[in-house]
Amino acid sequence: MAPRTHRRKKVAASDYQAVLEGIAARVREQPNRGKVATYIPALARIPKTKFAMVVKCVDGREAAVGDADELFSMQSLSKVFTLVMALRQAGAGLWHRVGREPSGNRFNSLVQLEYEQGVPRNPFINAGAHVITDCIVSHDAAGKQSILNEVRRLSGNAAIQFDLEVARSEREHGHLNAAIAHFLKAHGKLRSDVDEVLDAYFHQCSIALSCRDLARAGSFLANGGIDVTTKDRITTARRAKRINALMMTCGLYDAVGSFAFRVGIPAKSGVGGGILGIIPGLLTVAVWSPGLDANGNSDAGVRALELFTTKIGRSVF
Amino acid sequence: MAPRTHRRKKVAASDYQAVLEGIAARVREQPNRGKVATYIPALARIPKTKFAMVVKCVDGREAAVGDADELFSMQSLSKVFTLVMALRQAGAGLWHRVGREPSGNRFNSLVQLEYEQGVPRNPFINAGAHVITDCIVSHDAAGKQSILNEVRRLSGNAAIQFDLEVARSEREHGHLNAAIAHFLKAHGKLRSDVDEVLDAYFHQCSIALSCRDLARAGSFLANGGIDVTTKDRITTARRAKRINALMMTCGLYDAVGSFAFRVGIPAKSGVGGGILGIIPGLLTVAVWSPGLDANGNSDAGVRALELFTTKIGRSVF
Amino acid sequence: MAPRTHRRKKVAASDYQAVLEGIAARVREQPNRGKVATYIPALARIPKTKFAMVVKCVDGREAAVGDADELFSMQSLSKVFTLVMALRQAGAGLWHRVGREPSGNRFNSLVQLEYEQGVPRNPFINAGAHVITDCIVSHDAAGKQSILNEVRRLSGNAAIQFDLEVARSEREHGHLNAAIAHFLKAHGKLRSDVDEVLDAYFHQCSIALSCRDLARAGSFLANGGIDVTTKDRITTARRAKRINALMMTCGLYDAVGSFAFRVGIPAKSGVGGGILGIIPGLLTVAVWSPGLDANGNSDAGVRALELFTTKIGRSVF
Amino acid sequence: MAPRTHRRKKVAASDYQAVLEGIAARVREQPNRGKVATYIPALARIPKTKFAMVVKCVDGREAAVGDADELFSMQSLSKVFTLVMALRQAGAGLWHRVGREPSGNRFNSLVQLEYEQGVPRNPFINAGAHVITDCIVSHDAAGKQSILNEVRRLSGNAAIQFDLEVARSEREHGHLNAAIAHFLKAHGKLRSDVDEVLDAYFHQCSIALSCRDLARAGSFLANGGIDVTTKDRITTARRAKRINALMMTCGLYDAVGSFAFRVGIPAKSGVGGGILGIIPGLLTVAVWSPGLDANGNSDAGVRALELFTTKIGRSVF
Questions:
Q1: H helices within B11-141, ranges in order?
Q2: Residue A144 is part of which domain span?
Q3: Residues B188, B281 within the same domain
Q4: Global confidence as pTM
Q5: D112: which of A65, A284, D119, D277 lies 20 to 30 Å off by Cα?
Q6: pLDDT band at D12; cut points 50, 70, 90
Q7: C258 to chain D, minimum CA–CA distance in Å?
Q8: Which of B207, B226, B251 is the last residue of a domain?
């Protein structure tokens, strides 16, 4: 049996550029772009008109439109990268501590966690992310700094920083996350102190990066685990596939089904308005628009990705 | 932008045959094959040693091992085909009556249905399937006979029949389905009589077909909506993709996440022990082994599919 | 230790009459009286202005105001009397089939039933009442006729009948009850056929009696298990107390706490607008006003009972 | 209408003494006394053989058996006294912040709290107690000291203290309470800081008092709001009745129904093994035995109270 090969006709970089420009034009015509997250002031003041979209191909080519180099808050997008780190540290044993099933509930629900005795459904709901972060801070004394370093390495941008105002504000308004973390601790599911886990979690969420950084940082997921730029192996080919599978079934909060239905690619979103999408073997596509839909996903971002997979005629289905 | 093309090297039919034979040998070595469904006698008496696997490529080639022509009960696999029919009759308006999100709960749970006022999460949980069946019997006086005819047409096997003993037995033991249907009716979500919907539903579940029939019947889903054998257009290319997306996020009861993780392709299972998997643009793969795992999916079937995507080096991720 | 004695000063019958007349005057001034149940036409057409209140003392005296001899639909009030019958037939073993705890959920919720594997929380939610009715029809071939006979005997009114229009209408609109009964059957919690249980249940709910009938029928609960008029022992003193305890903790749907808080006596309500209250050792008080509050309890009825316990300075607390 | 009068034959103090001694003898014969709470070391080391029972009549007489002057941890019993304080401070407006209905769920469940947007079902589940404690610490700068002073005043024992080891241990192991408090704060239901509320809560739980102290401290609830010893009015007669009603419907965790059924009086329990029961107009009865049943109520304590109401032939039903 032949190994998987990708011998489709190369699409010229200029073509992706044209696709992105067409999408940006369509998005500009669309007045309604959801609501910016308001739970912390630092997010609430981002203009809804911001929009960026960047494609990073596995052959290294890149296309970009809009505010592609403007910084935004990573938020839940960080969960993809902490998962990769935790799998590197803990191996498949990690799956004893967190499940791999869609939750069917809001990302920050405590109900399911209670019915299931403190084992989070998957690494992308908040409870699961706390377990992942606990895994990292328990294995690695550098903790949150290591998370920042990983994002810097993957994006190739050493200037990426925590946004300390965001981190502080997350903590002040983070009572729901504190509730979840204390609940996990009560069920013996966290090894480190609750405060340490929350501190690392709020810092990873606060990482400020650009849409271009994001597209580059995710490139290994489209490329069998190998960073497109540096050729570093970030994770095994099998794990890269499996993380894509998790993004497909659990990556968009309570809208994974309709996103798969409309867009058809693995993706992960954050309440900062960013979404990272993967077409395995072909490219990563990052989009940023801070207005969110009712499910907490970037409203214009989801539409832009739907236009993208429709225009290029490619999805995983 | 180029349309999607599939110019991978043709894999010889004999190669798939060899892959399937290797898998069958591995399955034979495995003593534990889950538990046969026992809720009705007609299913409980099927020997657990039965095993079949059939590949149907989009170029028409076919490979098969084991009890590939032995009949088994379609059960929930019928939900894929009734969904195609209902979309043909009702169009996208169908999505006002049933959602497209994974449930995060057991396939026959009433809890979620109650919290969400009678709108089933997706067409593949039982409540959703009742809405789909209601749609068909409301549009089409022939009702259950039309469902049978569709399965006959898609499999190219006019000899396929309802198993009337199974249908009768499903009804006798079908109090949970009756509870769900009455609950939907109480919430105004069924147009036809409860008894008529249940009768059609129990009959569609009772359809007896072979693993070969199943692989052929699903071929349009791997082939952009066009039946591989007859070249009939069964559904639009867009709907075929979207049904694949639904299978990916909702097709394996409460194990969609781990199936995507391990196997990585859209699939739908039934408690008769059948699973239909799709590699878009390439092939359908059907497997049958009546022993079920704790989630109600064919135990050996899931393992066989995992071996299959691993050996051929192809998944959607 | 002395046995319980009731040597309080006798309150003259004329005093209760004056209390009731004062309450009726207050109720007449109150324009808002909730909403009449509309789920079946026979209930929806009852004028909201109807009001009756009857006191039956353990010494035999009686006081009444308003439409005290007009018939109304017993509905869930029947659950008190079927419970007495089922305890007589099945003894304390009945408590293996139904719990004794408040549900904390709406009276017809399926959620809790699912989480608790088909054992209803108490005999006064619909699921519990189906188990009780199943117990009766399983023990007694006369089934629903025996229930009618019991209500006739306890009220001393042989003219009491099923309202067959109501019974038919309950069945036609009874899909939620059918869902509950099928769910119980699916979990092996009903011995008789679902249809037989539902038929008896819908008939017991349809029994048409007057407020005076109701006050008399419940007199044994205030009188240590002995019918005040006939001196027949209806149940043991211990069971009478225990049924009062169940009414206190489970008798008013999702408002038991606030009813205990405001009124302070054991009581059971029905969606026909009737409420039966007990002051152990002293009297029963029945009230009827068809307009319901948000919890499904008679709006004016609850207020009338609150005035009553306040004016006579007696509650169980 | 005559005011409520209590002209039952006076029961001699010696009679209650005999009743209690009979019960103590029965309890001593019973080898199985449940399991001592183990979630903190200070509770886990209490011998299960401890037993005390004290009756305090509204006429001032007292009867006691067993370890009636040994100190134990008040735990949830404190919730009765903080409720009285909060009602004094906030009046009926308190009921906008906390409900009065039984929860139908475990005392520390977060599920219901989530479904009901952070309004606790009643003041006796942990979430409700946090709201009550928040009310006290928001109104009263002395906070936890005021709670201690109230318990001292009501029991007439100025030597009562916080058990600081217990308070510290509660905090260390109090992650579930921390989860609940952060959840309430996230929903805007706490006015004070989470840490301040938790600190006061853990201290109130740690108060160490004797069974005799407890019987005396609750005497006002049996006596229309007036302390039996000091004749101080602690609360209005109406509030005393209403607190009794709340104890009846919400005072014994998830066993209120069966306790009402078996024992038939308003009561409140704590995981330290204490139970306070009220027979309005007659007496308070306190019992202590540290072994708990599956619901978290004192195992021997519940049985002792059942024997007590049976032997004296008095309950509220």
A1: 13-29, 41-44, 78-90, 111-115, 126-139
A2: 78-205
A3: no
A4: 0.93
A5: D277
A6: low
A7: 6
A8: B207
